[in-house]
Amino acid sequence: QVQLVESGGGLVQAGGSLRVSCEVSGSIWSINAMAWHRQATGKERELVAAIDSGGSTNYVDSVKGRFTISWGNAKNTVYLQMNSLKTEDTAVYYCTSNVLSGSLKKIDVWGQGTLVSVSP
Prior knowledge:
This protein has about 120 residues and is an all-beta fold. The chain has no helices and 11 strands.
């Protein structure tokens, strides 16, 4: 089975920084792309940042210049570096990955989410 595990969430003061990570494990042939979504209370889930296997990235306008998505040295890990955090960044952050499984099935896999809380 393929699973994603997020880590690094927590409580941080506005203006501070936090890095969340996502590790992919299980039976996979290749990773096509990974992304971070977030869902704040009372709002719909939104795409925050995405990265493909070639390193091309995309961001929602509200985080451009503040957040950076990147691959780890091990290509089974992706990071989201969050700088200059604002209270409106408070949300549960979910890692998602589009992969070719070991059985060559193209699937989307979601992590369980990690809470990022930004205090005033």
